[in-house]
Each structure stands twice: as C-alpha cells, then as structure tokens.
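Let's practice the habit of predicting before peeking. Look at the sequence and jot down your guess about where helices and strands might fall. Then scroll down.
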Amino acid sequence: MSVICPYCDQKAELVQGYVLYPHRQDLFDKKFYLCRKCEAYVGCHPDTQIPLGTLANTELRNIRSQVHKVFDSIWKSGKMKRRQAYQWLADQLKIDIKDCHIAMFDINMCEKAIEGIVENENNL
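Done guessing? Here is the structure:
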C-alpha cells in the first residue's frame, strides 16, 4: 500500500508506534504511516497496514482531537448509541454517514463539525 502525504506529495513510511510515541509502551507495536518531512502521520487499523484516515500534521491532529472531545461526549453520555451519534453528526454536516469519519476530516470539516455539535447538542 502506498500512502502519499497531502502536504508534500511524498510517500509516507510505515513505522512502529515507538517511533512517534517513545513514552507510550502501549503504542509501541501499533503501526503508523509517517511523513518525516512534514511530521504528518496517521495510525493503522489494528493488525493491518490500512490507515485509519488521512495523514495529519500537528494543526489537523489537534483540531481532530477537539472534534472527538465534543463529539464523543454525546455518545459516551448515553444520550444515543455511537452509531446514532455518527448519523446525527453526518446529518448536521449534510454528508453521507459513510463519509463521516473524523480521521478523514480536513480542518474546514472539523470546524463545521465543532460548530454543528456545539450549536445543536442541547437539542439531543
């Protein structure tokens, strides 16, 4: 599989978790794609070399983390099941549920997601 960095168009390298997280032994054996030039990376699905989303630089990783923080509170609170929460988010973003993966969102979509969640979470 060839994963290309969206920032520099270079091929990303498959690395073990200890390369990115030397302080996190629980991540040592997990696989990641890393663009060393841009320091963008993405994790892989367990026991595969299939990326969980798109390569992300620090800025994008941070905003995706913010989206997860506000979004995960919806389904973790028990207001709805996880799948229902993703359908709700997809509806807020006016996208198909198959495209509703935070690890695939760019900065613009992350901003829209945060805005949609914050503005509408009281209506759940």
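How did you do? The radius of gyration is 16 Å.
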